[in-house]
């Protein structure tokens, strides 16, 4: 790959034992309750089992990255460790189009094959070889320690001899070579490192493998005999034919995590956890000089502009662009024998040696490109774009026509802590998520792209919208309730426009009246507050409007965990709390509440959520509880439930009703969602994760799908079995434990093949700082 860069110097499931529901501050039970007479819903036939999610909103922390060999597809790892492929659509907007399911722990690295339609990923379970055409697992290299396998996590990989061999590096301190043409059969094992091997890289020009890791030593290996087209038959007959160690190079004072070769194989670059990059003379096995300036681990290295520029990425959140100075090689003068050269070296003074290794490289620019620590950086070989991943569960795609001022093109991001609430908007096209990481994210669902992110200032427990969906309103452990504008076309778009101040405890639940003028809130202070929502005429981009409660009611004998307005013309308000009580209030036109009915012992444990039915079921009230049940009530008679929905094996944290009003969705700490028929009161579908995700905490309907949030920060887009297109997602008659929701069946775009090159377009003509042109092609 040849990069021509012009530099202008300018200035710039199973059951979970959960002590409490996420971080929601509910209190213990209040006394003993008599057991009411209840009608328990039965399940006449096994429920359907969901075997796939429509999409997953989530990115693995420190996700590895890989560009396809034509530069059109980016691979990374989602929050549940699926391997996902993303590419731009016909409008240039990036979207995920394929998931590969298999990893159940963090993915460490990934590589596209340079010639075949294969993607290899590795981690704790070994190396997975994915067939991109058949969209399935082709083979797997395990980590059992048997049959020449590694016996610990595979940390890194690289190709050798044009993809004929795969080289793997492991936590077991060994390196292994595998024959790609023979179904990844074992070729050879290299030992010698004293600790985990974290990085490997092959130089094709010199047939040299560089390896390094936690022992802070770089080992150079002659792997000429791994050219199986020449040595394959000989190796089969002679076990003495092996790769050989050429030299060791020491100089770093921390784990070495990345390596990068100059094309001719004479110079090697290394990055380490001592915050430095080092330039090495390979033939002499000596350190030429160090590049210092980062304040964190150097995680990525990329040569540009005929190897005159170096881009480094670090866990300090920055990328630095260096103009490399001349590289002087030891013992390269012609006409002198080795004795002469050694004498010259010995004659050199220490001062001269230090001067020779002085700071001859020039720092061109430092770019702050991550809020968190950069884990991976990959530059596209064909287009002026690069990708980065971070410790904050994000993958960003950057336009780098001007490398000194990179611009974010797309960001895949997820929460780094539990998602406590989700709320669909605009018929499921957009999604609001609220998390313990202090963030409210606003997603474009089709692109899995964050449109806006709001810093709430504390854990967020509840999120709702106004009926016209102009405001997103959030409550949490930062006592004030905050309203953000999500209506396009106004100057205060994505600004906090209203702040509701009045609670003296954490706000656990929110609901807006059908008319859109009243907000109800439930708090840890035992109160239900009613607020008048200020008119948009008072909103501005500079300052928020402060609102105080119109009415305050000490409604429960404990934290109020749920409030919900009904959809009636003259609405009711339902409230529930840790006192086990369900209360229904009449609401007059001024927002005053009067008690309509109550059941002081609606559940035997904390009631976590309440919602109303919709459409023809508008008189139904649904409550969810730590007693593992959902109960269905009729507003006309709260003396006993219409039905008790039994099936969850853990605390039920949320309940909601689908848009058509025919079904209820419950979320539980047992790691499942359940879909219930509201006519027969039976469970008709179960959604279960493949691994412990901290339980499911919330759900929100969005047309023919629903959105579900988990304790590990992942949000799933899950199908409802109400359309023909969703039938492939469901199976009947199998055991519930077999159901998983980790295999998205998203319609796949064609996997692009063939290389494209050419000059990058769209370069700024106003304030260019660094422009890139690409000639030729090939994977970086």
Task: List the keywords.
61 strands, mainly beta, 3 helices, five-stranded mixed β-sheet, six-stranded mixed β-sheet, 45% strand, 3% helix, disordered C terminus, 780 residues
Overall description:
With 780 residues, the chain is mainly beta. 3% of the residues lie in helices and 45% in strands. The chain has 3 helices and 61 strands. A hairpin with a 3-residue loop joins strand 50 and strand 51.
Shape: elongated
Approximate strand percentage: 35-45%
Structural class: mainly beta
Strand order of the largest sheet: 53-54-55-56-2-60
- Tally of strands: 61
Give the helix proportion (percent range). under 10%
Mind telling me the C-alpha Rg? 30 Å
Kindly report the average pLDDT value. Answer: 86
What's the end-to-end separation, in Å?
A: 8 Å
- Low-confidence stretches at least 5 residues in length (pLDDT < 50)? 1-38, 332-358, 734-780
Contiguous helical run count: 3
Query: Largest sheet, described in full?
Result: 6 strands, mixed
